[in-house]
Write a structure and sequence with these properties.
Layout: H1 5-13, E1 16-21, E2 24-28, E3 35-36, H2 41-51, H3 53-58, E4 61-63, H4 74-86, H5 95-98, H6 102-107, H7 129-137, E5 148-150, H8 152-164, E6 173-180, E7 183-184, E8 193-195, E9 200-203, E10 206-210, E11 213-218, H9 227-244, E12 249-254, H10 261-269, E13 273-279, H11 283-288, H12 290-303, E14 307-316, E15 326-335, E16 338-346, H13 364-372, H14 376-388, H15 399-423, H16 434-442, E17 446-450, E18 455-459, H17 466-477
Helix pairs in contact: 2-15, 2-17, 4-15, 8-15
Amino acid sequence: MQTTPAAATHCLSEPLLFQDLGPRKVVADFSGGHLSSDGGVLLVGQIDQGLGVSRALAQCFYDQRDQRSVDHSLEELIAQRLHAVVLGYEDLNDHATLRLDPLLAVAAGKTDPFGLDRIRDKGHALAAPSTLNRLELSNSKSTRYHKLSHDPIKVRDTLLKLALRCLPKHTREIILDLDLMGHLVHGLQEGRHFSAYYDGYCYQPLYVVCGSVVLWAQLRTGETDPKEDVIAALKEIIPALRKRCPRARILIRGDSGFCREELMTFCESQDQVFYVLGLAQNPVLVERVQRQLDAAAAQRCLCGSSSAREFTEFEYQTQKSWSRERRVVAKAEVTAQGRNPRFVVTSLPASGFKEEKSADRFAPPALYEQVYCARGNMENVLKQQVLDLQADRLSTPYLASNQLRLWLGTFAYMLLERLRILTLGGTALASATAGTIRLKLLKVAASVQVSVRRVYVQLCSAFPLQALFRSCQERLMNLPLSSG
């Protein structure tokens, strides 16, 4: 039997009976009125206003709608979408009910949080899923209903511009981490490609990360070698970095998938641009470290330890693919599972830089363990986007709209990362992941009342992090608003 809207409303209003509490009945329903379970969205809205993320992103779109009939501006639509992703609502279908949330409306800049002044769709302050869907699909469809197209180059440049603001201008060294991810798709998405490594059809987006800041998020179809995309990305990123941090040297770091002659030659042709890249082992390289492997095996037997390692370096050139000899650092490790040699190739000088206090910073042990292996921190950044913000939810049929979704996930991560850096330093959440910040700080019950003079939000009295919430609010209010 088909459920009518009236029947569905009746079902929602029916009381829910739970286990009795002594002589008392425990009854619940959904008649609480103007409540929100995401009181922390006020902090998200404030950091968004301070950084100007939604405002800058809205300038990358073209609005061809008849403004006489527009209820939701571009900035409001983008803020609604970004804030919902931050709060854990990555699906557009979620907005069918989220559009009733008065605090999400307040954070998006709606002057009428309850939508009571709307002529059509009264009582819904925010946009419906269909409107947000047209926002994402307008570059992929040409119909009378899709009038909110965007300029991909402007969106890309806006991400880079806002991300570079996070870097101190007087930074002397910048490390750029490169990585490809495999985002599985489960439909007939445009540009999907089968990957034996991921055992499925997927996209393979390229990310460039600096510390905890994502500078670049490019959706790739995955059937082409990444070297072309990487060099093209670096040609955009490096000049922008030079403008922001003119005295900084730049270190490019990546795994063996990026160890290409073209990338190394490009870095060597740039002023103050260095690289340290993983190098896949081959019989020649393994033969070069046999003595160190034997020494590590003997050390492990003598000490009775679970593993032992030796480090060395040498000049190496492939037979065909490399144009010159390059410095290779090797880790000769022996574990209970056997011999495990690993290699990296680098243009960093073994003696270090003149201004460095420590002359052995780029010696083989330090270069491998402290410089190269530190790239694992970048993988934690990308895991937050996938696990906490569902940035791999690339389920539209079109490549352009999936790229936009990838960018939206990256901008949402930027809001949470800046919230952590700017307001949570020195607290228990100073190094928390995006998911932990959402759960601990943003998920707080709130009651909303609107009068002529104010929007009165009553947060849950039992919220355990009230002092931290207050501290975050005070720090955010003291931040200067972005004019960009």
